[in-house]
Design a protein that fits this description.
The complex is a heterodimer of chains A (about 425) and B (about 450). With about 425 residues, chain A is α/β, with parallel strands linked by helices. Chain A has 2 domains: about 5-320, Alpha-Beta Barrel (TIM Barrel), CATH 3.20.20; about 325-410, 2-Layer Sandwich (Alpha-Beta Plaits). Chain A has helices spanning about 30-35, 80-95, 110-120, 145-150, 150-165, 180-190, 235-245, 260-270, 280-285, 290-305, 345-355, 380-385, 405-410, and strands spanning about 5-10, 10-15, 15-20, 40-45, 60-65, 65-75, 100-105, 130, 170-175, 195-200, 200-205, 225-230, 255, 275-280, 330-335, 360-365, 365-370, 395. In chain B, the strands form 5 sheets. A 5-stranded parallel beta sheet of chain B has the order 3-2-1-4-18, sandwiched between helices. In chain B, strands 6-14-7-8-9 form a 5-stranded parallel beta sheet. In chain B, strands 10, 11, 12 and 13 form a 4-stranded antiparallel beta sheet that branches. The chains are: A alpha/beta (about 425), B alpha/beta (about 450). At the A-B interface, helix 11 of A face helix 1 of B.
């Protein structure tokens, strides 16, 4: 059985699954329950000063009958006094010495404020600090959160202030609301960060109530920009994680963004995360999802013959490159399995209206029969993505017998490309 | 003879209502097929995939409009239509091992919401100037009237019975549709803009000549009111009743024409009226209720769901038995039936029952309920030039529903000999389209 324990920038954790700094880590009671159920670590709900919040904080985005595929929030840091948080944090660390307890901290960009909060926090015995440079709502207006994470110099400066007084690893949590996250990642590294955490939530409007015309969540008839998270943001987060992993910052990464299953977690790890943090799916389904997260990841590692999480880390990174390096001579076409096709015709409509008119539909013995016109198929994958039957539409290799040739090769006058059919 | 009744109490609704979350979840399963087979399977041409998609977007008004445009009786059809045999059977989901979409129940969901408003959500589509009389306030007549009123024509529906709705009101079991629902639906539809006149029997209370004097076009949708007789000796003895009379009396909440309590009842026939009557007999306290059918289960016109329901409720079925004589002497004491076997297929494609060379068998009983089919009450064509009746059906042009007399159109059971409600609706709509074209001065 694979070893799920990890060492993340010097912080030991029995498994790579941490609760992200959010409502699931509001209190010591919650975190101890989560540890009992199997969570490896918890990033305490952000500590800040002053303590303020509004009522009505969340808005969900449904996908058909699937509730809350995305979640927008305007909650700020902890609702409870710093003293209560410190007391509970100390208690948790005392009772769970082998679990990772990380304190998330957030302050305006003034050195004394940071130094004071960090010192008081370190008194609790927490294993690491997570600097919240990512909160996109409420905090930036007051010079905190993403207001820091969007300015590399500021991020570097504050990281170095914290590093000066911290004897535990300093993790910097990055905002995705930037043009290129790599700049802030390198700045945090230059400030002395021990690890990077991303992504924080994405700036959003949680929806609009069609009866009252009020964006969601509504606070007495008004709303504000919110932070978006949940399964809907996973592809964005995956890119940002991979971008930081390839940025040259060269620091361990704790990946966040829509992780709901062990499969999601494995993808983040494959793109360079050592630990992963989970929030929305716990808010949706509870701490109990940890059972399958651990179980599924462990089985997957066994199946792949990998001894531990580190062995999986970053394996997909070498396969991400520039577009101009992609092989222009690679060619796939859709292939429909007539045995399992149910004749819904969705592939036909999708290709006709949103593709390259490469699927032909006809009524055949009272059913819709679809066929691929390979001469028109560009191999976009669309039909296979929308087909409701698993593996009914597959993409088959029809590459010509030619060596690979990239756009870079074309510009350099190298290689040979198969003739492009115009589909007529 | 005693009958075991494993399941007593009221029969649950065939298609119970759905809560909003249920409808959304079910509608979200729909694949929204291209050239959707469910739509193709609908005799009234409902765009099933589209009305279901509109549920998923919360556009319930648009969904109801889509339904009503294709089928004004979408609400009653949601309840009585054999969806399991039509649209739901065509659903492709079972081909991937999943249950079909509950189309009938989704349709009910949409129509229940729509009927909470005082009138149908159909905006007048035209400014028709014609005057049309509709004879019969059943599915065909109401469908025709709704569509013509939608086009702006002046329409009056004349119906012989006390309440509108035709066989939906008078001839269907409660578990499929409550008795007060079809009249309510008819009145709701009339708010598109047509008049319902109940208790007027055309031909008796009002002549066709008078209709011709007052209306441009007359649509005949009078259905099949008369029960077919067995044509066997003793048929007129006391204790032989028509299923239609029994069901109609029950539906009106009045006294039944015969006492069923503690009686042994035979129901003759194999259709859905027979199963309805057999269930009604048990509900009314019959000691036993037995369906007597001259072919086998495979040839029974009653739907599989109805067949399993009657069995579930304790109705017995005697297959391959054909009535030969009702036994008296003064009132019914039994029925002599001839054991049969199946021969070659007949014109309907079903195998013809052939008598076995054995003596008839006596089935003792107190009551015999006839449910072997219906026919025209009288031939309405008599005296109207160009309205022909062939083999008990009014003859019309297949594309328009027009008779040989251009002022007379017809549709529904009186034309098709007795099919589903949805077919009657489709034929009413077909005629309405042609009447509209004719009234606009365009060739039908």
């Amino acid at each position: 059985m694979a070893d799920l324990s990890v060492n993340f920038a010097g912080v030991y954790s029995p498994n790579p699954f941490w609760l992200a700094s959010a409502p699931p880590t509001n209190t010591g009671e919650q975190i101890m329950r989560a540890f009992d159920m199997g969570w490896g670590g918890a990033v305490w709900k952000s500590l800040s000063d002053p303590i303020i919040n509004v009522s009505s904080r969340l808005a969900g985005t449904d996908a058909g009958a699937r509730r809350m595929a995305g979640l927008s929030n305007i909650e700020l840091s902890t609702d409870r006094s710093l003293e209560v948080n410190f007391k509970e944090m100390r208690e948790v660390k005392r009772r769970y010495p082998k679990h990772a307890v990380i304190a998330s901290v957030m302050m305006p960009a003034e050195r004394p404020l940071w130094v004071d909060l960090v010192k008081r926090t370190l008194d609790t015995g927490c294993d690491a600090l997570e600097l919240n440079f990512g909160c996109p709502h409420g905090m930036p207006e007051r010079g905190m959160g993403a207001a820091i994470g969007q300015h590399p110099e500021l991020a570097e400066q504050i990281t170095s202030w914290v590093k000066e007084v911290s004897h535990v690893p300093v993790l910097v949590k990055l905002t995705p609301n930037v043009t290129d996250v790599a700049f802030v990642a390198r700045a945090a590294r230059d400030g002395g960060a021990d690890a990077l955490v991303l992504v924080n939530t994405i700036t959003s409007i949680g929806g609009v109530d069609l009866d009252t015309f009020t964006p969601r969540p509504s606070v007495s008839g008004r709303s504000s920009r919110s932070g978006y998270c949940g399964p809907a943001i996973k592809p964005i987060a995956l890119f940002q994680v991979s971008r930081v992993a390839q940025s040259g910052a060269n620091l361990p990464i704790s990946g966040i963004g829509g992780i709901e299953t062990w499969r999601d977690a494995a993808e983040f790890i494959l793109l360079g995360s050592t630990t992963v943090q989970v929030c929305t799916s716990v808010m949706h389904y509870g701490y109990r999802i940890i059972d399958d997260l651990c179980d599924g990841l462990s089985n997957y590692l066994d199946e792949k013959g990998l001894p531990n999480v580190d062995a999986l880390c970053g394996l997909a990174l070498p396969k991400i490159g520039a577009w101009e390096e992609l092989d222009l001579n690679y060619k796939v076409v859709a292939s429909i399995d007539q045995e399992t096709c149910i004749g819904c015709g969705n592939c036909y409509v999708a290709c006709r209206d949103g593709g390259h008119q490469a699927i032909i539909a006809a009524r055949h013995e009272g059913r819709t029969r679809v066929e691929v016109d390979e001469s028109r198929c560009v191999g976009c994958n669309l039909c296979s993505l929308i087909c409701p039957v698993h593996d009914c539409i597959t993409m088959e290799d029809r590459s010509p017998d030619l060596p690979p040739r990239s756009w870079r090769d074309v510009l350099a006058g190298k290689g040979k490309t198969a003739e492009v059919t115009d589909g007529t | 003879m005693s009958t075991k009744r494993p399941h007593e109490g009221p029969i649950p609704e065939l298609r119970p209502p759905m809560a909003g979350h249920e409808a959304l979840a079910e509608a979200s399963r729909c694949l929204y097929c291209h050239d959707a087979p469910c739509s193709r399977a609908c005799p009234s041409g409902v765009d099933v995939a589209e009305f279901i998609r509109k549920i998923t977007t919360g556009n319930l008004r648009g969904s109801a409009v889509r339904l009503l445009e294709a089928n004004p009786l979408a609400a009653s059809c949601a309840r009585v239509c054999p969806t399991e045999e039509l649209c739901e059977r065509a659903c492709v989901l079972p081909d991937m091992g999943l249950p079909h979409i509950a189309i009938g129940r989704l349709q009910r969901y949409v129509m229940d919401k729509a009927m909470a408003a005082p009138a149908p959500p159909l905006e007048r589509k035209g400014v028709g100037r014609g005057k049309v009389a509709v004879v019969g306030g059943g599915p065909a007549g109401l469908s025709c009237a709704s569509r013509l009123a939608w086009y702006g024509h002046s329409v009056t529906v004349f119906d012989a019975r006390e309440r509108p709705g035709g066989l939906n009101t008078y001839a269907i079991a409660d578990h499929k549709i409550p008795a007060d629902f079809p009249p309510g639906e008819a009145r709701w539809l009339s708010r598109i803009g047509f008049t319902l006149k109940q208790g007027v029997r055309i031909g008796a209370d009002l002549g066709f000549a008078e209709l011709e004097g007052a209306y441009d076009v007359i649509f005949l949708g009078m259905g099949l009111e008369r029960s077919v007789r067995m044509e066997v000796p003793g048929e007129d003895l006391e204790g032989v009743v028509d299923a239609l009379d029994l069901i109609a009396a029950h539906r009106m909440g009045g006294p039944l024409p015969v006492t069923l309590a503690n009686r042994d009842v035979l129901v003759i026939g194999g259709g859905n009226t027979a199963t309805d009557a057999a269930l009604l007999a048990l509900e009314a306290g019959a000691r036993s209720s037995t369906i007597v059918y001259r072919r086998t289960e495979a040839e029974m016109p009653a739907y599989p769901a109805e067949r399993s329901l009657v069995r579930h409720r304790g109705v017995q079925i005697r297959f391959l038995r054909s009535p030969v004589e009702v036994v008296g002497p003064d009132r019914v004491t039994g029925l002599l039936v001839q054991p049969m076997r199946l021969g070659e297929p007949d014109a309907s494609g079903r195998r013809r029952p052939v008598p076995l060379e054995v003596a008839p068998e006596l089935l003792p009983c107190h009551l015999i309920v006839r449910a072997i089919g219906q026919k025209l009450l009288e031939e309405p064509g008599a005296g109207i030039a160009g309205v022909k009746v062939h083999k008990g059906k009014i003859v019309v042009d297949a594309a328009t529903g027009r008779t040989d007399n251009p002022r007379y159109y017809a549709g529904g059971d009186c034309v098709n000999g007795g099919r589903e409600v949805v077919h009657a609706v489709a034929e009413g709509k077909r005629a309405a389209e042609a009447i509209h074209r004719q009234l606009q001065g365009k060739e039908a």
